[in-house]
Design a protein that fits this description.
By secondary structure, the chain is an alpha/beta fold. 27% of the residues lie in helices and 23% in strands. It starts with a strand and ends with a helix.
């Protein structure tokens, strides 16, 4: 079984994340970045599926040159090969354009995948709409937010958990599945995996390689743009109330003033 896992290189949540002043897009170059944590669950699940049978795992990303770091970690975890779509004209692309680029890249793969997997969302944008958009472009059934996954007999079966109930959903292959962080525990790259990753193929494709016109992607083609942004104000020093017998009343008044009670 051939599986493609779409992953994303995101700014480190522990770093000082900001925007590019010139065009108000997320700064992905001037900050430390890493493989989106939620994508690690998709990589792990793809590895578990292939390890239980046969096949290979390809990881695919769209991003700046630094996004290679995300692919390298996926290869170190055990993925077989990687594809990086990188082109300066992609900068500023929205979810619609990103799904179009991913679909074109998947269409270029040989052989075509039996299963496309993604995380439930990215840890920077947290939108979670790209998997469904990508499935629509590929003409595949979309089975999203899987907490458990089983593949066999030409179909994929997943369990989706929510606050009220659990659902079992089945789709014929090929299909697209997004997974949650409840599905497994991603492995850490071993020393053996790190050394082996250095010999695994990592292809780099441009928009021209995919047959995509630059006018179809990028900031100018985006349906949404950031008009303004401001740094979060520093936290104010808290108020200390000494309890001299009326502390409870002061706390209640504080909560009532802010409409918490």
């Amino acid at each position: 079984m051939n599986i493609v896992v779409c992953v994303k290189y995101v700014p480190d949540a522990q770093a000082d994340r900001t925007f590019v002043e010139s065009d108000k897009t997320t700064d992905r170059v001037g900050v430390d970045g890493l493989l989106s944590e939620l994508d690690e669950y998709a990589i792990e699940e793809a590895l578990l599926v292939t390890e239980a049978g046969e096949g290979e795992v390809t990881v695919l990303t769209v991003g700046p040159e630094q996004a290679t770091d995300a692919l390298k970690k996926a290869l170190q975890m055990g993925a077989d090969k990687a594809v990086h779509v990188v082109d300066d004209q992609i900068h500023g692309s929205d979810a619609l354009a990103t799904s179009a680029i991913l679909a074109a890249a998947i269409g270029k793969l040989d052989p075509q995948p039996d299963l496309v997997m993604t995380g439930m969302a990215s840890t920077d944008g947290t939108m979670g709409v790209v998997p469904t958009m990508l499935a629509e472009r590929l003409g595949l059934p979309a089975v999203t937010f899987a907490s458990e996954l089983t593949v066999g007999d030409g179909k994929v079966t997943v369990r989706r958990d929510n606050d009220a109930a659990s659902q079992t959903i089945e789709a014929t292959l090929p299909a697209l599945v997004s997974v949650t962080d409840q599905i497994n525990t991603p492995r850490y790259p071993s020393f053996k995996g790190i050394m082996a990753a250095k010999k695994k193929p990592l292809d780099t494709w441009s928009l021209a390689d995919l047959g995509i016109e630059p006018s179809q992607v990028g900031l100018d083609a985006a349906w949404t743009k950031v008009e303004s942004y401001a740094a979060r104000p520093p936290r104010q020093k808290g108020q200390i109330v000494a309890d001299e017998g009326a502390g409870g009343e002061k706390l209640a008044a504080f909560l009532a003033e802010r409409k918490f009670v």
